[in-house]
C-alpha cells in the first residue's frame, strides 16, 4: 500500500443516503494530509437497493460538492457493494501467472452466478502455492451495468472515472492506514443506509467478506411505523434532533430493537465464518458507516458477542488543518466517511 505513489484520486462514495467526497495528499512514511472532505445528503428515491433510480439527483449532488469545495483533480474513483458484487476465494491447480490470466474467465464461470459476459472480472493471487499442487486466488466480479451507472454519474459531473473499488476493501484500507494490522481476528462492520458490509481480518490478512441487506434505513422505517411520521422527520429523530413533541428518548426502545435485529444478522454471518474456517472466534468488532454511531448499537453488539467493540475513526491518522476543517464536523461525519477515506488512499493505476 505504501511506497512510491502515482497521482491520487478523488474518492466519490455514492451511497444510498448521501454522497461523500474525500481527497488526500500523500506525505512521507505513508501518512496523508486531508485536502477535501464533504458530504451531500440524497433523497430516499435517488438510490434504491444500490440501484441509481434518479441519476439527475446524484449528478447534481456530486457536481455541487466539486464546485463548493473547489476540487481541481479530474481523476475520480468510486466503490460498490451489494448483490451485484461477488467476492470469492477459490483454490485452483498451481499454474503460472500467464496461464492463470488465460484461464481465469473459464475458472470464474464456475463461481459467478451471473453470465460471465455481464460482469467485470478481477483477481489477485493470495498464495501462489510455490512447490505445491494448488494456489489460492481472490476473485471479484461486478455486474457491468452497475459499474456503468455509477461511472456515468462521475462523467456527467465532468470528471474522469479511473478506478472502481469494493466497499469492504475500501473499509479495510481505511482501517489499515489508521490502525495498522496485528494478529487479532477483527470483524470490520460497515453499516450503511441499506447494506451492511462485513469483512474479517485474521493475523493481518483479509479472510472473509459478506454483504447483508440490513442498514440504517431499518431504524428510520421502524420509527416511522411507531410514530406515524414522515420519513424525513424519522431521520432527524434518529439522529437525536427533536421533532415537534417527539424526542429521541421516546424511540430508544424501537432503536434498541432494531439494533438487536442487526446484531442477530451479524451473529449469523460470524457463526458461518467460524463454522467454515479454522478460526475459533472473532476477538474484536470495529464499526464503520453512517449508522455506526446509532445510539447504543455498540453496546448491543458488545453484549451479544462479549468482545470489545469500537467505532472506526478514518481520520485518526490523517493530518488536517483545523483552520480548514472543523474538528466537530470531522467527528460528526467520520464514520460515514470511512469508505471514501479508504478509496482516497488509492492512486491512479495502482
Could you please describe the fold and organization of this structure?
- This protein is of the alpha/beta class.
- It folds into two domains: 245 residues, Nucleotidyltransferase, domain 5, CATH 3.30.420.40; 57 residues, 2-Layer Sandwich (Dna Ligase, domain 1).
- The strands form four sheets. It has a six-stranded mixed β-sheet, sandwiched between helices. A five-stranded mixed β-sheet has the order 13-12-11-14-15, sandwiched between helices. The protein has a three-stranded antiparallel β-sheet with strand order 7-9-8.
- The radius of gyration is 20 Å and the shape is globular.
- The termini are close together.
Features of this protein?
10 helices, Nucleotidyltransferase, domain 5, six-stranded mixed β-sheet, alpha/beta, Dna Ligase, domain 1, 34% helix, 350 residues
* Number of structural domains: 2
Structural class: alpha/beta
- Fraction of residues in H or I helices: 25-40%
Distance between the termini: 9 Å
Strand count, sense and barrel status of the largest sheet are: 6 strands, mixed
E-strand count: 16
Query: Could you name the CATH homologous superfamily of the largest domain?
Result: ATPase, nucleotide binding domain
Instruction: Show unreliable segments.
Output: none
* Count of discrete alpha- or pi-helical segments spanning 4 or more residues: 10
Shape: globular
Strand content: 25-35%
Side-by-side strand order of the widest sheet: 10-6-1-2-3-16
CATH architecture of the largest domain: 2-Layer Sandwich
CATH class descriptor of the largest domain: Alpha Beta
User: What does the average pLDDT come to?
Assistant: 92
Could you give the order of the helices and strands?
EEEEEHEEHEEHEHEEEHHHEHEEHH
The Cα radius of gyration reads 20 Å
Amino acid at each position: 500500500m505504501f511506497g512510491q505513489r502515482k497521482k491520487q484520486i478523488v474518492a466519490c462514495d455514492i451511497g444510498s443516503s448521501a454522497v461523500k467526497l474525500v481527497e488526500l495528499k500523500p506525505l512521507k512514511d505513508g501518512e496523508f494530509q486531508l485536502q477535501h472532505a464533504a458530504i451531500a445528503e440524497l433523497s430516499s428515491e435517488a438510490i434504491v437497493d444500490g440501484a441509481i433510480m434518479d441519476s439527475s439527483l446524484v449528478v447534481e449532488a456530486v457536481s455541487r460538492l466539486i464546485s463548493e469545495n473547489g476540487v481541481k483533480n479530474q481523476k475520480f474513483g468510486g466503490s460498490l457493494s451489494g448483490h451485484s458484487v461477488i467476492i470469492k476465494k477459490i483454490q485452483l491447480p498451481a499454474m503460472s501467472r500467464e496461464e492463470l490470466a488465460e484461464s481465469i474467465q473459464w475458472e470464474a464461470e464456475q463461481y459467478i452466478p451471473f453470465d460471465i459476459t455481464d460482469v467485470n472480472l478481477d483477481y489477485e493471487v493470495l498464495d501462489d502455492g510455490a512447490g505445491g499442487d494448488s494456489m489460492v486466488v481472490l476473485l471479484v466480479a461486478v455486474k457491468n451495468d452497475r459499474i456503468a451507472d455509477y461511472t456515468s454519474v462521475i462523467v456527467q459531473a465532468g470528471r474522469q472515472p479511473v478506478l472502481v473499488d469494493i466497499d469492504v476493501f475500501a473499509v479495510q484500507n481505511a482501517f489499515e492506514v489508521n490502525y495498522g494490522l496485528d494478529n487479532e481476528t477483527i470483524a470490520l462492520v460497515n453499516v450503511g443506509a441499506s447494506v451492511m458490509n462485513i469483512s474479517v481480518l485474521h493475523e493481518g490478512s483479509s479472510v472473509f467478506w459478506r454483504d447483508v441487506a440490513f442498514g440504517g434505513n431499518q431504524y428510520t422505517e421502524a420509527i416511522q411505523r411507531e410514530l406515524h411520521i414522515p420519513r424525513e422527520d424519522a431521520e432527524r429523530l434518529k439522529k437525536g434532533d427533536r421533532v415537534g413533541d417527539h424526542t429521541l428518548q421516546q424511540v430508544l426502545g424501537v432503536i434498541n430493537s432494531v439494533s438487536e435485529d442487526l446484531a442477530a444478522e451479524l451473529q449469523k454471518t460470524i457463526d458461518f465464518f467460524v463454522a467454515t474456517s479454522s478460526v475459533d472466534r472473532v476477538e474484536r468488532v470495529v464499526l464503520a458507516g453512517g449508522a455506526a454511531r446509532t445510539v447504543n448499537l455498540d453496546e448491543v453488539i458488545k453484549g451479544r458477542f462479549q468482545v470489545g467493540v469500537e467505532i472506526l475513526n478514518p481520520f485518526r491518522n490523517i493530518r488536517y488543518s483545523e483552520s480548514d476543517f472543523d474538528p466537530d464536523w470531522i467527528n460528526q461525519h467520520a464514520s460515514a466517511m470511512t469508505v471514501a477515506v479508504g478509496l482516497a488512499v488509492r492512486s491512479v493505476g495502482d
